[in-house]
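Minutes, structural biology subgroup

Action item carried over from last meeting: produce the structure token record for D-alanine--D-alanine ligase (Bifidobacterium fermentum). EB confirmed the sequence was re-checked against the source entry. Recorded below for completeness.
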Amino acid sequence: MAKKRIVVLYGGVADEHPISCISAASVLRAIDTDRYDVIPVGITRKGQWIVDGEDPKGWKLGDSNLPSVEITKRSRPVLLDPALGSDGFFAGEHDDLKNPANGYGTNFVSMSDIDPGKHNMVCTLGHVDAVFPVLHGPYGEDGTVQGLFEMMNVPYVGCGVLASSVCMDKHFTKILLRAAGIDVAPWVTFDARTFDADSQFGNSADSMLAQVREAGLHYPLFVKPSRAGSSFGVTKVEGSDASDEDAAKRLAAAVFEASHHDWKVLVEEGIDGREIECAVLRDVPSEATRTSLPGEVVLDSRSKGDDDAFYDFDSKYMDESASHVEVPANLPQDVLQRVRSVAGKAFDAVDGMGLSRVDTFVRPDGSVMVNEINTMPGFTSISMYPKAWEATGVEYSKLITMLIEGILR
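Output recorded by EB:
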């Protein structure tokens, strides 16, 4: 049987660029190369698509420097002709990467162009059967690249345009889930474009605090970009419900930090509950959504007495000793089943497909609240998504095969 040609896409212009690189490295090391002919395609931080860069399979967690897609001496630009669909993937010459005047700066060409000298050094990457976009964050997980492949009629792993865009925006995720009868944390949303950046939002601090109190939000507060991931720009704001002269300043500083990543900023009420995550899979459209055993990320710093610790970027990706994953989470069976039920319902409510990780809060009374939905969850060696399925009986390499085969049917 002829191998199917799969493009694994990684990197990107979002803050999550290095996490995408590490996730892709794990996927590339585990993918079944007896079944698939794999073409790694990296996207630089400037948005250039390349092949023949640094081998991503060597990237891993724990390195002092986070990986990045860089143009090397052997790199060639990847060029797309949307009109040719699955046959529209080409590679140019190395020098084209530095000469946008050739028309390659946009990565889009038309192979029907009659200019006799324009495409003489372009070669095809072959018929691409599917794309696995291991991209996190904006311009990768938000429906944009999914829309591109929809226009090219190229199968791709993961959620479609609607689910990807909705779940990338935490504000609209909450609105859609709440409309579906699924409990979410109380919040307010700010438009940071209306605040005075010169004062680092200090001139708007009192107004922000007034809106938070009018919404009835209780401390601690979590301030986060609406359309970012991997805990970039997230700040925990302590305080009290009584008058606090420093509360407005702390809130403004947190909103200013989040605004570096997105002009839309959420302020959420901290929930008294355990953060429980559930991996969701619907690899075949005609089959029902499946859910894994729910897991919990245990912050080892809390066991050492740091009760204020939360699962920030360093805990996720830089310090393997900061936390560990427990699957299944240490909860009663009926609560675990409730988490799975809510996770599946949330995934279906946003029209999810392929895979997602649904993050929930389990409150002391056993009720379940959805925090967010990650449509392309981390695939690193310590990520919850593969660990949860492994504990449920689906080995990592088989999981990748299921996701790819599901879209090739």
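Discussion: Residues 167-184+273-375+377-408 form a domain with the D-amino Acid Aminotransferase; Chain A, domain 1 fold (CATH 3.30.470.20).
Next step: EB to file the record with the rest of the batch.
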